[in-house]
Amino acid sequence: MTALTILQNTAPRAKFGLLLFALALLLAPWLVGSAGGNAWVRTLDFAMLYIMLALGLNIVVGYAGLLDMGFIAFYAVGAYLAALLSSPHLLAQFPALAAALPAGMHTPLWLILPLAALLAAGLGILLGAPTLRLRGDYLAIVTLGFGEIIRIFMRNLDRPINLTNGPKGISSVDPVQLFGVNFARTQEIFGLRLPSVYLYYYLFAAAMVVILFACIRLQHSRIGRAWLAIREDEQAAEAMGLNTRNLKLLAFAIGAAFGGVGGALFASFQGFVSPESFSLNESIAVLAMVVLGGMGHIPGVILGCVLLAALPETLRASMGTLQQTLFGQVLVDPEIIRQLFYGLALILAMLYRPAGLWPARTGGAR
Amino acid sequence: MDTLIQQLLNGLMLGSLYALVALGYTMVYGILRIINFAHGDLLMMGALIGLSIIRLLQSLFPGMPGLLVLLLATLGAMAACAALAVLIERVAYRRLRNAPRLAPLISGIGVSLLLQTVAMLVWSRNPQMFVQLLPLDPIEVTAGDELHAPAITNMTAIVTVGIALSLMAGLLLLVNHTRLGRAMRAVAENPQVASLMGINPNQVIVLTFAIGGALAALAGIMMASNYGSAHFYMGFLPGIKAFTAAVLGGIGNLKGAMLGGILLGLIEALGTGYLGEATGGVFGSSYQDVFAFMVLIAVLVLRPSGLLGERLASRA
């Protein structure tokens, strides 16, 4: 119903763009896969996860103008929740639980996703409630601290009760199982052979589209406009009768929920979670995607994600071989070059394109 | 009693390092109202540059006395980091002075990432052994008995605290009793009016960054001397903690940064020292870093202007 109204209300050019986007989304793994093999499709899977994260962060940073530098904490919470609910770890710790669940701990994804979203949203409110009175730059540092606290706890909560298994992380998380289809194995559907990475790609793409749709609807809703008003001038927004505190909390909660969903999918995809996947650098990476693409502008954010998510793989493929041929050995780790790019992207974007590579058309983005 | 004195000594050492770094944050914030996110990485660059100078001097003049080597390396690293801080201001912050608040913060994050990458390229990812030039031999402060180990300290820690405290005193003199200090205070108050009074705000800002960078480099070398190693990521946590210290004392206030730094060091040392005992060994020293963040959140929520800070208008 709402999808139809969107279609009816969009200009023909935008309709064409949407069609192109859908087509690209459907065909991407086949194009990328035939050119570079499954490793590249895997990169694409991660790009989808990053888009979910970045769309969530975009609500917080782009719409409401709150710089959250601990966003990865919500991703981590979602991932750990999924890992705990669908791996043998908890049962090994609590024999009573193991006796109650003879078939083992295998919570279906249908249950994990809403739980992850709820838990992350609750955590977002918990973090936001005391801190949202702070000015923007203070908020950034406090959220950064929050992200670090979450990571420190995950690293150390193997005592007194072994909840997170400490730095070793939780392994053998169940792969996604939907409609009796095991996503970890190559499946044959309508004569098409779909390796695991392709299956996950379509699952992630579907989840991403749901989040994308929610974002678009939110942006054009009363709430979305209120967020923009807060971003532009909080005092004026308050004077116009907006409840800025609740609206900011809502932005935090919704952004966090998207992050939590992404995290749960990530855990099932990887089959393994450990605290080191959720370092500050990951928060900065997601922030770089949002900032580079265009804060508050959804197509820009997606562009930023695809560019920066594809970057490490591209660098590994190009820089590695380039150095091999030039110097006979790999002198500079592509991982370091990636960091260099992230740093440069943040500085240059702020200096020369503060609204991002693909900025919103109307008004200033911030 | 021995444990208490030991933790107080540890806290004082840690706190004076935090205070040195916090001064850099607070001076820049006082004048430009921005958080220099890359400030912690200046500490890291200082330690690594100092290490390289020490290695160079030791290979060129093998007979040179250790104290002289350390002194030269420290001065060299301070000069280098002062220059680096000025460069950062020029490249990443100057154009963004009138931009929205988040812009300089984000470009600062970029600079921080960039500095870490450069450090990785030049000094590799692995921790580098920091050459010990001051004795680390334990000096017993209390006698101790059969049950308790005596509280100990060493020459490096004593020198660290001594230099840090005297530099802070010097900085206070500079800011409160010299022409330059008056110019700095004037620019912090109102850059436009200050420039009408014949002060060049850009010059003052550059000097502020230079002083901050030099202090951070000094803190970096002291930290590396005390822990015996230096690596590309060593600036992040001290940077955040020093920022916490600056906020705790009241950002923009020099005495506040010093007080906040030393307080935070003491809180951290005492908290870590007694947390294990208080919780029956459930939570150990691995939670050391949580304290600073808890303090930060608590201060910002309960008293955002800090202990000594004046009330700042909310500028979103």
What's the Cα radius of gyration of chain B?
20 Å
Helix content of chain A: over 70%
Order of helices and strands of chain B: HHHHEEEHHHHEHHH
> What's the pLDDT, averaged over the residues of chain A?
84
Number of helices of chain A: 15
Shape verdict of chain B:
globular
Tally the beta strands of chain A.
6
Global structural class of chain A: mainly alpha
Helix content of chain B: over 70%
Write down how many β-strands of chain B occur, each being a DSSP E stretch of 2 or more residues.
Answer: 4
- Low-confidence segments of chain B, ≥5 residues, pLDDT <50? 312-316
Which two protein chains have the largest interface (Cβ within 8 Å of the partner's Cβ), and how many residues from each?
Answer: A-B, 50 and 48 residues
**Biggest β-sheet strands, sense, barrel of chain A:** 2 strands, antiparallel
Tell the overall outline of chain A: globular
How are strands sequenced across the largest beta sheet of chain A?
1-6
Secondary-structure element order of chain A, as H and E? HHHHHHHHEEEEEHHHHEHHH
The overall average pLDDT of chain B, rounded, is: 87
Cα distance spanning the termini of chain A:
32 Å
Write structural notes for this entry.
The complex is a heterodimer of chains A (366) and B (316). The radius of gyration of chain A is 21 Å and the shape is globular. By secondary structure, chain A is mainly alpha-helical. Chain A has a domain at 41-278. Helices cover 71% and strands 4% of the residues of chain A. The two termini of chain A are 32 Å apart. Chain A has helices spanning 2-9, 12-36, 38-63, 72-85, 89-93, 95-100, 109-131, 136-156, 196-219, 222-232, 234-239, 244-270, 280-293, 298-327, 334-352; strands spanning 170-171, 177-178, 181-182, 187-189, 192-194, 272-273. By secondary structure, chain B is mainly alpha-helical. Chain B has one domain (2-141, 151-232). Chain B is built from 11 helices and 4 strands. In chain B, the strands form 2 sheets. Chain B has a two-stranded antiparallel ribbon. A two-stranded antiparallel ribbon of chain B has the order 2-3. The radius of gyration of chain B is 20 Å and the shape is globular. The termini of chain B are far apart.
